[in-house]
Amino acid sequence: MRNVKHRFSLILSFIIFVVSAGLILPAKQVYADGIAQEEFMNDNSLVSLSIPYGNTYIGKRAYYGCKNLESVTIPYGVTKIGESAFAMCPKLAYVLIPETVKTIGPGAFAGDTALENISFEGSNDNFFYSAGVLYDDETKELISYMPGNERKVYHMPDTVRKIDKYAFWGAENLEKVVVSTGPSTITPYDFAYCSGLKYIYMPEYIKSVQEYAFRDCKNLEYLYFGNKKVSIDPTAFFNCGGTFQTVSGASADMFNEKFVYESELVEEQERLSSGSKASDPVSGNSVSGDSASGNSAPESNLAPSTVGKWDPDTTTYVTRNPALKSMVDSLTDRLSQNAGVLPQQTGQAVPPFGRVIGTYTPVIKLP
After folding, report:
1. Residue closest to 321 by CA, chosen among 253, 249, 261
2. Hey, is 16 helix, strand or coil?
3. Does the model's pTM come out above 0.70?
4. Of 103, 30, 22, 17, which is closest to residue 60 (Cα–Cα)?
C-alpha cells in the first residue's frame, strides 16, 4: 500500500513539473464571435432582441421565422448581416443597424410585413436608404424594399443595375412598379407574395424572369415588357391565377398612360410646388425622400428642380413630361372644379389613393 502511494506521489509530482515547465499547456477556450447560421431559427420565445456586444456577424437565417420577434438592436462592431437573417418575422417592426455594418445579405428582412422602416445608428456610408427602400451606397444595387412599406407605387431609380433576390418579398401594399433600365434580370423570388401587386413595367433591357419571381402575386393584372423576347422561367408566375395579361414591346410612356395613380400626380405636384428636387414620374431617374441615416442622395442622382413647376397665379401645372401632360391637366381640372385650387393650397383632403386613370386593353396572354 505504501508503494502505491509512493508511486502516485511521484506521478503527480511529474505532472506538476511538466505543466509548470510549459511542456503541456491547458486547452484554450474558443469563443464564438458571431451568431451562427440558423442558431435561433424559429425561436418563438424571442420578442425584444438586443444582440450582445462582441459579435461581428449575423449568420444566414440566424433569426428566420421568429414569429413573435418585434424589435432588434444590432450592436456596434457587427459588420455583416447574412442572407435571410431576420426573414419571415411577421411582427418585426423595429431594427437598429450600427454604422459598422458593411454587408446586408439578400432577403435579410423578407416577409417581415410589419417592417415599414429600418433605422441606422450614426452615419453609415455603405448604404443609401430612402423612403423604405435600401440600396448600396451608389444606388446601383437594390437590396431590400421594406415589406411593410405603405406606398402603392414604386418607380425604381435608373441608377439601379442589380436587384437582389427576395428584394420585394411580401410587400403586400405595393400595386404598381416601374423597373429601371439598368437590370437585365428579375431574380428569384423578387416579387414573391406581393399580394397587392397589379401592374408592372419591365423595360427592354430585361432579358429574363427567373424562378418564382412573382410567386403568389394573386392580384397581378398586367405586365408590360419593353423587350419582345424575354426568357421566362416556368415557375416565374406560380400561383398567380393565370388571368393576368402581358403587353410586349411596350414603352414606359404607354404603361403610365394606362396605369397612373392620382396619388402619383398629386405627390409630384406637391414636390414641385415646394421647390424640392424630384424624380421624373415616368423614368424614376433619381432617389428622393429622406434617408434614415440623415444622408441625402448624391447630387448627381437627382433630377433638376426645373422638371416642372406650379404657377400659383394661373393654377396651371407645367410639366416637361409629355406622357403625363394630358393626365395632369385632367387631374388639375378635377381638383380645381370646386375650389379652383389644388388641395395642398386649401387644406382639402387629397383624393383617394389607388384610383387608376384611363382604360386598358389586353394584348397578349402569357402561355
Report:
1. 253
2. helix
3. no
4. 103
